[in-house]
Specification:
This protein has about 325 residues and is of the alpha/beta class. The chain has twelve helices and eight strands. The protein is elongated and about 70 Å long.
Amino acid sequence: MDQDDKRGFLDRLKSGLAKTRKLLLTDVDDIILGSKEIDQALFDELEEALIMADVGPVFTGELISSLKDRVRRKELGSPEILRRVLRETMREILLRNEAPFRIPPGEIHTIMIVGVNGTGKTTTIAKLAHQLKAEGHAVTLVAADTFRAAAIEQLEAWAKRVKVPLIRQASNADPAAVVFDAIRTVKAGRKGVVIIDTAGRLHTKVNLMEELKKMRRIMGRELPGAPHEVLLVLDATTGQNAIAQARMFKDEIGVTGLILTKLDGTAKGGVVVRIAKELNIPLRYIGVGEQLEDLRPFRAEEFVEALFAQNDR
């Protein structure tokens, strides 16, 4: 990524986080600027503001504890310093969950994309394919969400737009059979990245998870080590629901990384901090818009810079 491209994305990230920044930092700044001293009333107000911004009770509790500890050690002389500590603490937590995508060259690398319907899963797959192709990888898409004909058609349209091949069968085909064929096809000659779309909703959660587990077994049997990645797509606008979904998929089928979409449409971007603190799953990518270029690898420094940007004094 060249400097202009990086700066352009950072600007879009700043713009995308505007609602979150307004909810979180406007309140925090008002609390800090309105306080003459650091006391329990200030901590109570700060705690409420952080909880409202969806950063989560665990992060909030630890931050308040850390701040009180610093006050006792006389490290916080004025309320203004609280904001800097908030920024530093967020940065430290997010850095622990930054895990860049590494794809070995010259091998088949399978990525299973999971998530509930409505998270932007199919468009995220297209954006990921576009990015990986731009990085020089051969990419193949697999339409294994066979329960919705529209999902196959949508992925087919994206495959044509991004100019990558698509492996598909008729709607209502067995998803595991589609995956079986896909692995056989790429083993027969096409190396590179294989991105597999999966169903986001069957008539019960149990059925969905069993279907995904079956697909994992078939892939692992046909290609040892597959799937090499299981990426869960989460919609940032759902806030706490995103956390519940992440826990469910992590517990049921295992998740190696997260993609957080729709950060540009929400005041709940603080959920990134909560995900990092509570789930300990690497955050691979974030999405901040509709364009193919609007999905980028998650970088903690960029995120914190964008979140605190316009409020820096």
